[in-house]
Description:
- The chain has twelve helices and no strands.
- By secondary structure, the chain is mostly helical.
- It has one domain.
Amino acid sequence: MRTFTASLKNELMKISKRKKFLILLIIEILICLLCGGINYLIGKASAGAISASLMLSNMPMNMLSFFIQIYIPLIIFMAACDLFAQEVQDGTIRASFMRPVSRFKLYVSKLSAVTIMSVVYLFVLFVLTTIIKLVGGSNMASAAGLLESFFAYFLDIFPLIVLILFTAMINQFLNSPSLSIVLCVIIYIGLYILGIVVPQSSGLLFTGYLEWHNLWLGVTLPVFSMLSKIGLLLGYGLVFGCIGYYLFERKEV
């Protein structure tokens, strides 16, 4: 456990040293502030015809839809490619392999570091949009509403983990970070569009479950349907995780 913790700290340190992730976090904050400001100004410009507090009342959930499907997946692609394909290309992965930590722990520590980074982005998004909602004077900011928003953010972490496992697996096939990012983006967009063009396939693709909270909040599905969807997501995670680790464990550099 001590070696895993040390390896995880090392991977987190690598991510924290890359300024682009800090810049992307600042951009996330600016997007939230801009959207909150626009909603507030629209409410004021309409002279009460459109309630600003009403528009801001559902901001945590409205912003979650954009960030969970577009913004955070792109950040995951970049972070995973930095920790896998980039290290293979520049040879620094050799130093990681020489450390007294098994490849399994090293692989899991890299996945955990990307997961923690994603959770940080989600947490900042939740806190900021909730503050904007409260500052906007929403009278719908009940404790139950905040708890529901928090639960939605928490649930959406699980499909993100599957996406991270998928991205890590793709990175094992390529040694070029640029090519890895491009391939991840193309596959992700392709699956996303396929889910829209062919709605019947959306339920079979892991990209169709990024807004995982929609299955749990509001009108819930029957138990059997929920179990089948949980099993499907777990299956994707296991397949991506096993293939990714198999290739990583046998990687020669």
